Amino acid sequence: MWLGIFTSFIVETTVISYHRQMNMQPKKCFVTKVRRNGNNLNALVCVFLVGVFARLLAFTFPYYALASISSDSLPEGKPLRQGACATVHGSSRLSTSAENSRRQEAERVKEGMSYVYYITSCPRAYDIIRERIQFYISQDPSQAAGLIHLFFHDCFVQGCDGSIFLEMWAVSEQNAASNLNSLRSSSFHIIDNIKASLEIACPRVVSCADILALATRDAIFMVGGPWMPMLSGRKDSLTAASKETIIANIPSPAMGFMELKHIFASKGLNVEDLVALSGGHTIGQTHCSIAASQLVPIMSSDISVSYGANLSRICLTQENSTSSRSHLTIHLDGLTPNTFDNAFFKNVIMKQVIFHSDAALLDDDGAAFYVHLFANNEAEFFQRFRLSFVKMSEIGVLTGNEGEVRLSCTMPNT
């Protein structure tokens, strides 16, 4: 035990030194009186004591030990929203279900992954990704939705392995029917540009799969969502998925609840995960051609009359022919389209969602429970989304010699 405490002192001192070099002071929600311009010795002692406490907790809850030494820490300069402190570091007020999910999360840590994976091989990796994403989001906040969409489509096909970037096959994942005209070209460009920056800083070290995962996480946070500590160490795949695999694994906006439940279950995700991750539709856009399918020849019972009339004014005007609707877009949430919040669930309840797959969340009692819970409690939604997003980010991950670190995201090295 004393050896563990002594080790905690060494680890915490090293991490503090590293974070100061990187201008990243570790944040702790319950340490409110330590300031960067205060007494450095007091700050060191404070964080040391926190580290000792964290190591003692580690005997029972190893997740806390991992999070406490993470270089993948909450960035400076963004004020936490109400309830965000519990979202980042956990809370004793969490439900039993959420606490059990956290224990399961700690048990899922795969060999070859770590919260400090790049701390020696590419110390500025997390900063470079974060800085680039901050630039892109400041220019266009809607890029966050594009990255979420891209990451989801990568993870659900053959795992979070960056296979969606590969372009060398006749039918790449990008050109499959489920992805064509669905994924933003700008999202691919963002990842390519970040990869180029990282190749300058530390060649052949950071995988495209990790870049996509971390960039998406950062983008969600920068548009108001929860901060999510995330493991790194994903390797890139050598091949892309087949057309059949893509069709079988990407949910369609027209799917019913049981179809959605089956696909999510095949990824190790339950109904709670399904509903929480559907909350990603609180930001983003879709094509008017999708909306039109809910309006003609008759209006779908999925949407309210007033919302249907609003969609018709936007997507079914005389100027918008059938062909032009495939290019015209509409916000999924018209009130806060670029803010990650719980508005999506309120929209589901009010029948103001475009996708049948979203409206179908009310067709199941278990799913409907979470829809109403998240609609009434944004902090609870953020906590559940964090857990579900992290679970999704570890689907089918390749580590060690199972994959590679591509020089270019669009093609394998050999």
TrEMBL record:
Q: Where does Ca(2+) 2 bind?
A: 282, 333, 336, 341
GO terms classed as biological process: hydrogen peroxide catabolic process; response to oxidative stress
Entry's localization field = Secreted
Keywords assigned by UniProt, alphabetized: Calcium, Disulfide bond, Glycoprotein, Heme, Hydrogen peroxide, Iron, Membrane, Metal-binding, Oxidoreductase, Peroxidase, Secreted, Signal, Transmembrane, Transmembrane helix
Q: Which cysteines are joined by disulfide bonds?
A: 122-202, 155-160, 208-409, 288-315
Q: List the InterPro entries hit by this protein, alphabetically.
A: Haem_peroxidase, Haem_peroxidase_sf, Peroxidase_pln, Peroxidases_heam-ligand_BS, Secretory_peroxidase
What residues form the catalytic site here?
A: 153
**Pfam families per record:** peroxidase (PF00141)
Could you tell me the superkingdom of the organism this chain comes from?
Eukaryota
Ranges for domain Plant heme peroxidase family profile: 112-413
Q: Which EC class heads this enzyme's classification?
A: oxidoreductase
PANTHER family for this protein: PEROXIDASE (PTHR31388:SF5), PEROXIDASE 72-RELATED (PTHR31388)
Please report which protein family the annotation says this sequence is part of: Belongs to the peroxidase family. Ascorbate peroxidase subfamily. Belongs to the peroxidase family. Classical plant (class III) peroxidase subfamily.
**What is the role of this chain?**
Removal of H(2)O(2), oxidation of toxic reductants, biosynthesis and degradation of lignin, suberization, auxin catabolism, response to environmental stresses such as wounding, pathogen attack and oxidative stress.
Q: What is this protein called?
A: Peroxidase
Please name the taxonomic classification of the source.
Eukaryota, Viridiplantae, Streptophyta, Embryophyta, Tracheophyta
